[in-house]
Design a protein that fits this description.
Strand content: under 5%
Structural class: mainly alpha
Largest sheet: none
Mean pLDDT: 88
């Protein structure tokens, strides 16, 4: 209704409509319709420029939404610049506590993505403090504090932060919380690093069960969880279970493939993520060879291993061609500047 009304008014530059333009920006950015999001944000910016000075608190809102759009476009360094501008505006205002938290949280995530873990911890700790005043959930803040400490090999701190994220998520929504599968998966990796294989498998299975409970069968997180489960069963020499699990991983990383027969592989063109398909096929080839060598001695399993290796090689060739094409495209665009 808001968008329909504004469109029918032919985009009036009225300061009373600033918040409405921001709502339109937020809506289209959530839909990844960047052009439309920017159209409304430009109008909102023009209203600010004509009605207010640059120190007005509404610029905090404007910079924040520019940062969100840049984040969606994958322009992380530019997103950081606008989140920091928004943060500076929030820090000098008494009425923008929510934006303090939101900017701290986003900056914490972005610095983690840039592998600046100490800076990420700094911002996430500030977000944690502000979460008590803003009413926002600290689940993802604890999650990223855990990820940073894991990357820095501070495993005890990482475990504590993951456990706090898990406890709060379960209190808020239970097993259906959108972060819970990710938390379980991260905890499984931590326990694998600590060589605590009992807890590793426990949390891998929790991660998969939480995904199924939420009716999520085809997603990147589910695929990675299943791949890690397949690797675990292989390490435990439970080769048949490993193959069954890797087959589920193949199903989760393809659009139309749903065959549970371990001797059948999907078409490469059906993959939603070739980079994720590759390690599954390679692992399946390795497991099939071990299944043949240590369990069955059946030539069918040796042939299945060879078939997977051939598919893995073909897949790698396609990935290499794609990467070379992207590099050529990048170099061409760079030369046009």
């Amino acid at each position: 209704r808001c968008i329909y009304l504004i469109d029918s008014l032919n985009y009036p530059s009225n300061k009373k409509l600033f918040d409405s333009y921001i709502i339109c920006t937020l809506y289209y950015n959530m839909l990844s319709e960047t052009d439309k999001a920017l159209k409304y944000l430009y109008i909102a910016e023009n209203i600010l420029k004509s009605e207010y000075n640059l120190a007005h608190y509404k610029y905090c809102n404007l910079y924040y939404h520019y940062a969100r759009i840049l984040l969606n476009l994958g322009k992380l360094d530019k997103a950081i610049i606008f989140f920091e501008r928004s943060l500076r505006m929030a820090q000098i205002s008494d009425i923008l506590n929510d934006y303090l938290f939101l900017n701290y949280r986003h900056l914490g995530i972005l610095y983690y993505s840039n592998k600046n873990y100490s800076r990420s911890i700094e911002y996430n700790l500030k977000a944690l403090k502000e979460s008590k005043n803003s009413g926002f959930s600290p689940v993802y803040t604890y999650l990223y504090l855990g990820r940073c400490n894991y990357a820095l090999n501070n495993l005890l701190k990482a475990e504590n932060h993951y456990s706090l994220a898990e406890s709060i998520a379960m209190h808020e929504s239970g097993i259906i919380h959108p972060a819970i599968q990710n938390i379980y998966d991260l905890k499984s990796r931590l326990y694998r690093k600590k060589k605590d294989y009992i807890n590793e498998i426990k949390y891998l299975e929790f991660a998969y069960k939480s995904a199924i409970r939420n009716n999520v069968y085809k997603s990147v997180n589910v695929t990675r969880t299943l791949l890690n489960l397949g690797r675990y069963y292989c390490r435990m020499h439970d080769f048949k279970r490993s193959l069954d699990t890797l087959q589920k991983a193949l199903i989760s990383v393809t659009k139309n493939f749903d065959n549970t027969d371990i001797y059948i592989n999907p078409d490469i063109e059906d993959a939603t993520d070739r980079m994720l398909l590759a390690p599954i096929i390679k692992r399946k080839a390795y497991v099939f060879f071990n299944y043949y060598d240590k369990v069955t001695g059946n030539i069918i399993d040796l042939k299945a291993s060879l078939k997977c290796y051939k598919m893995a090689n073909k897949l790698q060739e396609k990935i290499n061609i794609s990467l070379n094409n992207e590099k050529t495209k990048f170099n061409f665009l760079a030369n046009q500047k």
